[in-house]
Amino acid sequence: MKKNGNGTKSRARIVTTRNLARSGLALLLATGLLVGWARRAQASFNLGDGVNFAVYGSGTGFTDELQPGALTVNGNVGVGPGGDSLLGGSGVDVSGQLIYSDAISSGNFTAQGGPISINGSTFNLSGTTADQIANGLAAGQLVQNSSIALQTETDLQSLYASVKGLSATAGAPSGNLSSTLTWNGSAGNNVASLTSFNYKSGDTLTLDGGASSYFIFNISGGWSMSAGAKIILGANVSPDHVLFNLLQSADGGTGVDVTANGSATGEGVILALDRDITFDTPSGGWTGRLFSDSGNTIHLFSEATINQPVVVPEATTLISGALLLLPFAASALRNLRSRTS
Domain of 144? Predict the structure, then answer.
């Protein structure tokens, strides 16, 4: 070992070598921990491009009906292939954009009444429908020919196909869920098979678990919440990890519509591809997403409020980024070793 002019061991060499060893150990530990975490935190289901919307529907005969106001959508409203939208009354407020997969025309867009606010500014209702559309496109309030709105239709159909046949997990609720319940979920899938979900005043559903807990309700019958009913999520549970999946008629679904009214409040994703969704919640609110499809209507009115969840990157996304950095960390470690040898 090299000595300095006084014949003592080089403290710099010792410190650097110690740091080198610590860095190498940290690198190995980080790799192992990240890989282990990745294995435990695989996403249960994938919303795909649906994460871009608070409200979305598509298909021939589908309508996003946002009227009569007042009502609020804190997020984007999507209209997929073949769908249309209708906005009317006073106090309709969409904080995001109205995004179409198709070209927007008088055949698939109607706005009347007012004032209507889209993307942070008042929508210009003067002139013809063509004038309104042109003004809305220029102001960034309307978006047409969106590939994201187009892809979302496919992604939601894939989502439905991926969860409809999942078996119920041990300890999950079953039958008609119509009374207060706390469900403590584990990591990964927590699946319930219900004949219906019917919550009234005083009923509270509490879903608790970790950041990697997913709750899936496959429901053959109706879904309803009335004044005073609540769905509460634990601090670590994301609204995007809670899915109320209304089975289609081909899979045993009854086709009963989805309804919420009064002061009902809750969180989660409602996937009702062959049913109407109606929210009439003047003193309530919903943090989550509403999805439907052909021949149906998502109808918001009477001061309904829908809040689009903030998208938090899945653990596996963060891990992938961290793993990509590991070769650079290893390279830096090799350089440090060469300088100290």
Answer: 48-313
